[in-house]
Amino acid sequence: MVYAFQGYIPVVHESSFVHPLAAVTGNVIIGKNCYIGPGAAIRGDWGQIILEDGVNVQENCTVHMFPGKSITLKESAHVGHGAIIHGANLGRNCLIGMNSVIMDDAEIGDESIVGAMAFVKAETKIPSRSLVVGNPAKVIKQVTDEMIAWKTKGTQLYQQLPEDCHDTLREVEPLREVPKDRIVQENTYETLRDFMKK
């Protein structure tokens, strides 16, 4: 669902996909090849929210801010399931782990990885290429070339997903039994642990 608010109509590039069960409201600008999952809420009622090209905001995420603020999720930022971005800016090609919370005026540096369930306090500045975990979140080491390669590959899957959704996602009635010829989906992505073993 896409909603106008106080005269602001969201701008969504035609190559991006906003799931019908997501809510995009007001002063929101979504670039190319972005994916917005079901249950996500991107609420630009009190300030502008910009998603640059290739950003994904997955299922049940919230992106919002205090009045008068504007925020940017830079190119290829990757926001995992259930995360909350409240008045924070995300750097290029960063990863925000599932169910993490990034608070007001925080800055996540380019190519940083924030672990699942981390809590990044307001006004925290995370340098580029940092691995961040915990509550409160702390930098524990630098992101390696191998880690960012793994992250980038995962984000590329989400950058392909809008086209796949435009082409094949349809509301249907469920089948009542599993077809005998149902195709097994291939393994196109590994966990970080498996990726690092190579």
Automatic annotation (TrEMBL):
UniProt-listed InterPro entries: Hexapep, Transf_Hexapept/Carb_Anhydrase, Trimer_LpxA-like_sf
The UniProt record lists the keyword Lyase: no
Record's protein name: Transferase hexapeptide repeat family protein
Record flagged with keyword Lipoprotein: no
CDD domains: LbH_paaY_like
Keywords, alphabetical: Transferase
A Pfam cross-reference name: Hexapep
A molecular function GO annotation: transferase activity
